[in-house]
Amino acid sequence: MEFFKGIEKIKYEGKNAKTPFAFRYYNPDEVVAGKTMREHLRFAMSYWHTMCAEGADMFGVGTIDKSYGAADPMEQAKNKAYAAFELMDKLDIDYFCFHDRDIAPEGQTLAETNARLDEITALLKDLMKRYNKKLLWGTANCFGNKRYMHGAGTAPNADAFAFAAAQIKKAVEITTALGGEGYVFWGGREGYETLLNTDMGLEQDNMARLMRMTVDYARSIGFKGDFYIEPKPKEPTKHQYDFDTATVLAFLRKYGLDNDFKMNIEANHATLAAHTFQHELRVARINDAFGSIDANQGDMLLGWDTDQFPTNVYETTLCMYEVIKAGGFTKGGLNFDAKTRRGSNTPEDIFLAYIAGMDAFALGLRMAYKIINDGRIDNFVQERYASYTNGIGKKIVDGSVTMAELEQYALAMGDVTTNISGRQEYLENVMNEIMFGF
Ligand code: XUL
Ligand code: CO
Description:
The chain is built from 16 helices and 14 strands. By secondary structure, the chain is an alpha/beta fold.
């Protein structure tokens, strides 16, 4: 059965393409700096937004039907899987990401739920082989069900913790069975609404215990992928413990988990934390914790996670600049954690949205290399710190100077007279020139 009738395979047709159903900048097999664009970008489809979400919001019901011609929940789950692979095939996307509950509906009991997961996992395995698709990462939805109303790993109720552990154990098993290259923790309910009822210390200790157990169990069953934490400051909770990259790094180091986890950075989560997307990527990169990306963009006039498809080429360029500087993706990739607007309610809109996002990242990749090859920005930064390469600066960097010696140096100097301009406006114009100079 064909679910997306009338939509052919999307191909690269270049900037003069005649149809909107074509890539203008994403040319999967084109080599850019020694790797194909496909290898650089490692695009992934998010199962939850693309296959499941029907456009409902806090004020209204869905606007697009995602029942895939079936009423029975398991029939629907199967059709959804067929539709997912048709979509990935037509969009030439190599990877996908899912929560356990996206692929199979919960049953009456945990045992029934797990049996359903096994059935769908077997189907996904077949489809992955048939279509040559891979699992970028899996995760467990430990936030949707009401049992997690107070949290999962950070629940005040040990039974909820136990249930979450059982759920994550299964999610790790199916991720491993499908050869997943990663496993994500995103703590949707792992935070608090008020400190008046919260033992923050115990909650965080318990979260760390759950993560340690997960890593140990996953390794014991042969999981070879990377573990990620996906920072987000708030929503649905008022405060989430995985607030931003810096906070997560402190958490990981406190509990000795820093060698086991990297970051899955989401653009819209960065802006909710009042950071730029580039900031979060930079913090991860300089701490050797860059892993994967949830590609989307937020709306700066709205205070929540709008999960829009990324089309802002400045953002994708600065993102790919950081990715390249981090050495590129290893097991991570660009997962479109993005949904079409509620008013963009046709299957065509889903394809057009992915095309927009993929083209925006293809442009970002091309532009990031242009910036790096141009060299003006990198050279400027290098020059700006040149005083640390000799004289007193070198001694500071080498750790071979004392405060008393620095005092002597300052006394002899009189005052700082060597500050040079930061040239921000010039650098912004260099970026414009590189991106738009014809
Ligand atoms: C929520 C979010 C999640 C994670 C996976 O804001 O981004 O979908 O990516 O749980
Ligand atoms: Co996400």
